[in-house]
Amino acid sequence: MKKSILMIIPNFGLGGAQRVFHDHSVELQKQYEVTEAVFNLDEPNLYPSGNPLENMEVPGGNNAKQKAVNFIQRIIRLKAIKRRLHTDVCISHLEGADYVNLLSKSCEKIILLIHGSKTHDRNINGVVGWLRKKVLMPLLYRRADRIVTVSRDIIPEMVEDFGVDPHKLVVINNSFDVAQVRAQSLELVDDAMQAIYATAPVLITSGRLAIQKNQAPLLDIFATLLARQPAKLVFIGDGELRTDLVKHARALGLRVYEAWNNDSLTPDYDIYFIGLQANPFKYIRPATLFVFPSAWEGFPLALGEAMTCGIPVVTTDCPTGPREMLAPISSTPFQPIRAMERGEYGILMPMLTEAVTLTADKQVWVDTLDQLLSNAVEREQLGKAAQQRSDDFSHARTFERWAQVIDAVLAE
Q1: The pTM is what?
Q2: Residue 217: in which H helix or E strand, if any?
């Protein structure tokens, strides 16, 4: 009889964690009896797996008292679900689900999946952020049977900042449906978009328009680059910073296309915000460079998928993930890099988050992009290397490792 796996996440909707949750649900179902659980369905399930779903029907709450009541209610309901399903292992995705998973523990084994850096996450701030980092995570995380991190560089954070036993920590990188991404990347963009690609070299980036992705400095870099040579910059995605980014681009004198305004799609613009796309890969593959200015990550899906498309990638050496993906045999530097670093599978760049060095760091980006846009041979080599590396992130390799971890926990 298959062992019973319960997977829990706070909410659905659009996000990298939700995509990973879907992939795990689909792949683990091949060896285990998988049920999903979610706090509520306030956001649509954009990545349905077809597996059974338990909706706990507990909202977030509008004030501190209501949030506390709902938090307790989630623990009670998850405990009941675990008992009813005779759960053998409960795997939680994202911090809120981790707390509820740990506090509802009975006889089942508990595995937490840490999707990104906690130490460097600027969304964990203020009094509540201090409480999470200094009290909740150190107190609760050590109670897990295993903690899986998506990047090697999250391991030291768990040990040094949150007091987790190193023996409980395991690294399993995120994975991608490599064959499907490559197949989808071969689909042609429409004639209007093809005309844009034919006009000038295209820099492209993909991700939520949010503080983590740090796209604003990229606009500054691109504006300076345009003074040296023609180029286009394409943004795939949407998010809460949409208006701010458009305003910033226009303040730089850039001509901005906005898909949500039903603008006429022509080569006359400098910046193209094309919004969410069902198939982003067909836009990425024919572009000249993939640029990724994130302030922090976990093991970024967007970067891995761009590599799978065979496009050369230029990314910040942010915590965590990019260095592990592009220069896996190198060690994480003690201090942020201040110059371009050519990894085996792509280009690592200074982060764009430090006010003191920002001007110089942006100049490094401008010089590097200018040089790459002028060197087709190097771009071809980098694209081939990136695609080769992406084979290491296949579902088959990743979920073989997950099965080993789950079975080891069950055997304890």
Answers
A1: 0.92
A2: helix 216-226
